[in-house]
Amino acid sequence: MKKLACLLLLILGFTAYSYSQFNLNKAFKSATHDVDSLKGGKSGGGAGLSKEDIANGLKEALKVGSNNAGSSASKVDGFLKDSLIKIPFPPDAEKVRKAAIDAGQQKQVDDFVVSLNRAAEQAAVKAAPIFVDAITSMTIDDGINILHGANDAATQYMKSKTSQQLHDTFFPIVKAAIESVNVTKYWTPLATTYNSIPFVKKVNPDLNEYVTQAALKGLFILLAQEELKIRQNPVARVSDILKKVFGSLDK
Q1: In terms of CB atoms within 10 Å, which end of the chain has fewer, N or C?
Q2: Cβ atoms 166, 215 nearer than 8 A
Q3: pLDDT tens-digit profile of 55-107?
C-alpha cells in the first residue's frame, strides 16, 4: 500500500508540474504573439491596440506627465521643498558659501538659495507648452519601443530628443526669472565677501546657466515620476487612450 501511495503521489506531482509548465509556455507564447502583432501593426491579442493607439497613448501620457510636472515645479516651494529637485548653492562656488558662513552670513546664504529656487519655479510655468511641442515629433515606432521599454523610457526619449531645444528655449525664461526675483542681489554680497579675501581666485559662476540646467534636471525627474505613475497606477490614467494602452501592460 505504501509503495502504491508513493507511486500515485509521484504521478500527481508530475501531472501538476506538466500542467503548470504548459500554462507558463502558453502564456509566454501569447505574450510574444501580442508584442509581435503590435510591431506588425495588428491588434494585440484581444487588447485592440494598433500602432496608432500606442503612439497616441504615449503622446497623451507625456502631455499629462509634463503638465503635472510643470504644475508641481512651478508652485511656490515646488523646487525649494522637494529634496529631489531643490537647487543647492552652486558647487563651483562652494568656497564662497563657506567663507560667507564663516563671516556670519548664514542668512544671506539661505536667502540666495531660496532665490535660485524661486527663479526655477517661475521658469517652470513655461515648461509644459515646450514639452508638448516636442511631443508631436514622436513616431509610431518610438511609441512602441517606449511602451515596452523601461519605466522611464518616455522620459529618456524626451531628454535625448529635446534637451538642447528645451535648454535654448528655457534659458531666456530662467534669465528673466532670475532678474525678477533679484538673485544677483543676494549673490553680490556673498561674492564680495569672498573676493575680498587676499590672494583668492575671484568666483563668479554663470547663474543663468546653472539655474537653467538645474531646473531642467528637476523637471525631468518630476516627469519620470509622472510616467511611473501612469505605468503602474490605473488611477493616474485619466483618459480612455491611457487606460487602453497602459492597461494592456497590466495583463
Answers
A1: N
A2: no
A3: 888 888 888 888 899 899 999 999 999 999 999 999 989 999 999 999 999 99
